[in-house]
Design goal:
heterodimer; A: about 160 residues; mainly alpha; 8 helices; about 45% helix; about 0% strand; B: about 240 residues; alpha+beta; Alpha-Beta Plaits; 2 domains; four-stranded mixed beta sheet; three-stranded antiparallel beta sheet; 11 strands; about 25% helix; elongated
Chain lengths: ~160, ~240
């Protein structure tokens, strides 16, 4: 019997521990976001937040809904698989509001050499020119129509 | 009823739990996109890369990448002869404005676009002390910038050098595989703007994705396979000199 006469100490100690654990749980409830652990050891809501970023490039499917005429020009040419925004730049704004946001006219002298300036590291089969020798300073679109660049018998069309 | 201190103590956890649900609100639903049905990667056909830098420019525009930092970039390799251990590599401004003529047109010259490899066993997510970077259920390595401390462990851990600290937010940043685009059914900005189709987004869980046919019929390699990261960016025509 005497062995348990001071058992009150133990109960008080257990109470302190219990209060500590409760306090930890309460603080944890506040600090850990609700979606933490939804998919793994991270905040699940972050997925939706990252996915909600705005677009800058509309994508060629969007372009083609309106510009079927250009698609028709491109389809048999060498540039059939070059998407619109590769040359015309990011135009999601234009797709959202075609009336007020209009794309700028492009300078072929800058644009074409990005891909077609000769470089030893480019694949052998890729059409390349030394621009200084090739056109004698003429703009590329004097002879080549960018949407379908091959020079046909009747000249550029 | 007389509320004592003891009663208050007992009520606190319940109140805490309730308040958290009030704060969280309702999560945004993503219709038609099931995380479990996708496993994203990329295919890079080096035999088609012309080093034009369209991917680099597109990435910087789409993701507002700060000037002088890159989520994707293009390297040019030059290997003279048998010495593939010591290639000469240059990447002026990440290849964003294309490349000047090769110094030595002899030997092997070729371009290698690089980006996050979205490893299935990624070293960068394993070292994050706070769970700010993770592999999403659809196989994309992402950074939760509201959780990131900017401790740089992940920057050091990435064997491919694909991460950096954003100088304005001071948090880790990297390629998200245009997560905001692929969730909407679009391709990434770099793939959308690659004029030769050298870069192709690949959904490895989609049986009708052309990646499967390509992988079965070509000699394809990942970067640093000895790191056992199970990288999901596959390179066709990768030279042994590429680091």
């Amino acid at each position: 019997m005497n062995a348990f006469k001071d058992a009150g100490h133990l109960f008080r100690l257990a109470g302190v521990f219990l209060a500590g654990i409760l306090l930890f749980l309460v603080i944890r409830e506040f600090l850990v976001p609700k979606s933490f652990g939804e998919y793994g050891h991270y905040r699940g809501a972050a997925l939706a937040e990252i996915a909600a970023r705005p677009l800058h490039y509309a994508g060629h499917d969007t372009c083609e809904t309106c510009h079927a005429d250009v698609l028709e020009k491109k389809k048999d040419g060498k540039h059939a698989h070059v998407n619109c925004e590769t040359c015309h730049g990011a135009l999601a704004n234009h797709a959202d509001d075609p009336a007020s946001v209009t794309p700028q006219k492009l300078d072929t002298a800058v644009l074409c050499v990005r891909c077609h300036e000769a470089n030893a590291a480019k694949p052998r089969g890729f059409p390349q020119v030394v621009s200084a020798d090739h056109s004698n300073g003429l703009a590329c679109d004097t002879c080549h129509q960018p949407h379908s660049p091959a020079i046909t018998a009747g000249g550029a069309k | 009823m007389n509320l004592t201190r003891r009663h208050m103590l007992l009520l606190l956890p319940a109140a805490g739990a309730a308040w958290k649900y009030v704060l969280a609100g309702t999560p945004e639903a993503a219709p038609n996109y099931k995380l479990s049905e996708h496993w994203w990667g990329m295919l890079i056909d080096l035999t088609k890369c012309i080093g034009c830098g369209s991917c680099v420019r597109a990435c910087q525009t789409e993701n507002d990448v700060p000037e002088g930092y890159f989520r994707t970039w293009v390297e040019r390799y030059h290997v003279t002869d048998y010495d593939i251990e010591n290639p000469q590599v240059d990447s002026p401004d990440g290849g964003k404005k294309g490349f000047p003529p090769a110094k030595d047109p002899s030997g092997k010259n070729f371009f290698v676009p690089k980006l996050c490899n979205h490893c299935a066993d990624s070293p960068c997510t394993q070292v994050c002390p706070v769970g700010a970077t993770f592999i999403s259920p659809d196989g994309v390595v992402l950074v939760d910038k509201t959780y990131c401390l900017g401790c740089r462990y992940c920057v050091q851990a990435c064997p491919y050098g694909c991460r950096f600290i954003n100088p304005t937010t001071n948090t880790a940043e990297k390629c998200t595989l245009c997560y905001h685009r692929i969730r909407k059914g679009l391709t990434t900005a770099c793939c959308e703007n690659c004029p030769t189709g050298a870069r192709q987004l690949a959904d490895l869980k989609n049986p009708s994705d052309p990646i499967h046919e390509f992988l079965k019929t070509h000699s394809v390699q990942v970067l640093k396979p000895y790191m056992a990261t199970h990288a999901k960016v596959f390179y066709n025509g990768l030279d042994g000199s590429v680091r």
